[in-house]
Amino acid sequence: MNVTNRHILLACLKVFDLLLLTISYGLATRLSLEGNHSVSFAEFMSMRIKLSNFLIFLVALLAWHVIFAMCGLYKSKRLSTQKEEMILEWKATTLATVCLLVVAVAFRIRMVTPSFLVLFWGITSTGMVVSRLSLQRFLGHVRLRGRNLRYILILGTNRRALEFARRIEVTPEWGYRNLGFVDHEWTGSGEFRKTGSRIVSGLRELPEFLRKNVVDEVAVYLPLRSFYEDASKIAALCEKHGIIVRFDSDIFGLRAERADETETSHAVATRATMREGWPLMVKRTFDIAGSLVLLTLLFPLLAAVAILIRMTSQGPVFFRQERVGLNKRRFLIFKFRTMVPEAEKMMEQLEKLNEVPGPVFKIRNDPRTTPLGKWLRRTSIDELPQLLNVLKGDMSLVGPRPLPVRDYEGFGEDWQRRRFCVRPGITCLWQIQGRSSVGFDQWMRLDMQYLDEWSLWLDLKILAMTIPAVLKGSGAA
After folding, report:
1. pLDDT tens track for 192-201
2. CA distance 262 to 81
């Protein structure tokens, strides 16, 4: 699940939990009153609600939300078993009930009796367990159908690494795909090979493997007593690539006797993406709404350009090219065709004319460009079909530009690859600061600056500044 969808789900879960607590409180009240004939439910409902009572209930709701968050109900449970989840849920509802008891004693709420508390706990716990199990099964079904997958690499070939790999294999509903193991030869390698598992890379070859493959997470099972330096370098390397690192809880090769069995065996150690939370959810919502509105408003222009391309040159209207996207996933980008057909096959002959240092290929007066294509490039109209990529989820309105596979393979430093830890975008700092007139190293540093300083306000600012930059045609090539 991508970051935006995960935060949408978490926001819905938080709202659902608060509704569940409110409904549980109401049901417990009704059932308690039915057992106590001194006051009928109708009489209770006709009572006037004091503002102070309403404020007390709001404080209780806030306290319950904090308790649920502290119990870890809104953390990733992809690697948790049903038993582990249920224990956490019971723990959270028990603490919420204790919190209600404290509030009742503090504010002398006579209705909160022992029987009321038992009913409240039972209704809340049942609703929580049933809803979470239903959600877990739904997500598992989605993952079994090949959606919401994460590709994980396991470092180490010891018993614990194999156990983790088996857990992934027998629980495909987690949505993990094991890319293989990374290790060198050691005394236990013979036993590992008997399992039929495969080593896809050695520790020394790991940097090259990460550069050439889609890797979302790395699970480290190397014993840190003897591999501390290696593990430290691997964590730093993954941070450069924007890859999540999970460390085994048994990091020193010793099983902790007092380990909490309700906790998962992994903890996220590094994540080099932009800040998470509701801003990313708003960003994706804005991408969808913005691309839909722009496609609708610009449809007459898009149709006119498509007709002009067909009338002025032979070949397809759209240029489709494989680009490198989120976590190095490949996708097809859509642009209006601005060059002669089969222009990519002519690139090798024109390499000597490249005007931009680094792995990218740019020629200001590219001989392959059609007369109409020059105008489309200068006005950046050729980029408009990428709104379809934004709608599909391959791109964002604002983000580092998606690079061709050829350019990506020419990257010389791993820190530059951190730009792929987020969705690429139609515009970013590079576009508003000169485009092709900006050197490659400065371009990459602008992308890093965007990742480090990202905010919704920065996105809006970049979008606003892109319009005058396009009108001036600064740096267009």
Report:
1. 777 778 889 9
2. 9
Question: How many angstroms from the chain centroid is the CA of residue 88?
Answer: 24
Is the separation of the CB atoms in 364 and 436 below 8 Å?
Answer: yes
Measured CA to CA, the distance from residue 424 to residue 335 in angstroms comes to 15
pLDDT at 258: 33
Q: Which of 21, 34, 224 is nearest to 125 (CA)?
A: 21
The single residue listed with the structure tokens 């400065």 is 442
Q: Which residue has the tokens 């050729």?
A: 382
Q: Please, what sign has the CA dihedral across residues 285, 287, 292, 296?
A: positive
What structural domains does the chain harbor?
3-144 (no CATH), 150-270 (3.40.50.720), 278-472 (no CATH)
The DSSP H or E segment spanning 446 is helix 440-453
User: Residue written as tokens 């397809």?
Assistant: 316
pLDDT in tens, 37-81: 555 555 555 545 566 667 877 888 888 888 888 887 877 666 666
pLDDT higher at 318 or 172? 318
Sheet holding 217-220, edge to edge: 199-201, 176-182, 150-155, 217-220, 244-248, 266-270
Q: Quick one: 122 exposed, middle or buried, by C-beta within 10 A (0-12, 13-18, 19+)?
A: middle
Q: What average pLDDT does this structure show over 299-315?
A: 93
Beta strands in 171-240 (DSSP E): 176-182, 199-201, 217-220
Better-predicted residue by pLDDT, 309 or 477: 309
